[in-house]
Design goal:
The chain is of the alpha+beta class. 42% of the residues lie in helices and 21% in strands. The protein folds into two domains: 153 residues, Regulatory protein AraC (Jelly Rolls, Sandwich); 106 residues, Orthogonal Bundle (Arc Repressor Mutant, subunit A), CATH 1.10.10. The strands form two sheets. A six-stranded antiparallel beta sheet has the order 1-2-9-4-7-10, with helices on one face. Strands 3-8-5-6 form a four-stranded antiparallel beta sheet, with no helix packed on it. A hairpin with a 2-residue loop joins strand 5 and strand 6. Keywords: DNA-binding, Transcription, Transcription regulation.
């Protein structure tokens, strides 16, 4: 069976285009041909082979292969023990990044998942979602994320963030700044950041200050105050509203921090930018 899906207008990061399964006849083949989106094939039983860029990969149960957009590929079921497989077609701005996290790419198109039958379960859940209405697209997208999460977690490849040219210090500093960007409106401590990243607080603070030439707490204060400045032009927000929106429930403390960073009170700063 195969089901084709319309292109998503809301899930631009990742979207399922089609899915299906097939019990192939001996020697059944497809290609050489190209596809316009990503296709993951997963072998449920039997054997076959996949060819891309002049390389042939022999595959069996528990293995799979990736077809990348606009790449010529060919695949064929075995003659003695033809394969049965399921497939998932998808696209989106996050697709390539997620696949790389699983160690799957144009240059490394083969993957293995033989721990359990969850991939087949997700396919069945996709099929059974046909009875849903407006929620179906979101459920299908969620199931696709779950499928890719299995491949990422089971991949022997080290997380791509450690394959980049950045030093380990730069990676941890980026984690800190990302955490602050996502959570600056809320109450948290430097200890919370260290626990989230998985490093000793003192060690993380030392790395951050060495790289950024200011402490994590100083960076957080500056980030919150800069965000407050961006809100100052919105006359619908009072100073107290802005204070709460950037993580300061105490307007007096907010005013003190604001003046420390910008050299003037929030009220005076707002008057000057009008």
């Amino acid at each position: 069976m195969i089901e084709y899906l319309p292109r998503s207008k809301q899930h631009i990061g990742l979207h399922l285009n089609q899915f299906g399964n097939e019990e192939c006849l001996p020697g059944h083949f497809f290609g050489p041909a190209v596809r316009s989106h990503y296709l993951l094939h997963y072998v449920v039983d039997g054997e076959g082979f996949f060819e891309v860029d002049g390389t042939r990969y022999e595959l069996r149960r528990g293995q799979g292969f990736l077809i990348c957009p606009d790449i010529i590929t060919y695949y064929q079921a075995g003659t003695a023990n033809p394969w049965s497989y399921c497939w998932f077609g998808f696209e989106g701005t996050s697709a390539e990044t997620l696949l790389k996290q699983a160690g799957i790419s144009k240059s490394s198109p083969i993957f293995c998942y033989d721990q359990d039958n969850r991939i087949e379960q997700y396919l069945q859940m996709m099929i059974e979602s046909g009875g849903l209405g407006k929620a179906r697209e979101t459920k299908l997208t969620g199931l696709l994320y779950l499928l890719l999460s299995l491949l990422i977690e089971s991949s022997p490849v080290t997380s791509p963030e450690y394959e980049y040219t950045e030093s380990r210090t730069e990676i941890y500093v980026e984690k800190v700044t990302n955490f602050i960007e996502m959570n600056y409106p809320y109450k948290f401590t430097v200890e919370d950041i260290a626990r989230f990243i998985g490093l000793n607080r003192s060690y993380l603070c030392s790395l951050f200050k060495q790289s950024m030439h200011l402490s994590i707490q100083e960076y957080l204060i500056r980030h919150r105050i800069n965000k407050a400045c961006e809100m100052m032009g919105n006359t619908g927000l009072s100073i107290a509203d802005i204070s709460r929106s950037v993580g300061y429930n105490d307007p007096l403390l907010f005013s003190k921090m604001f003046k420390k960073v910008k050299g003037s009170s929030p009220k005076h700063y707002r008057a000057e930018i009008k």
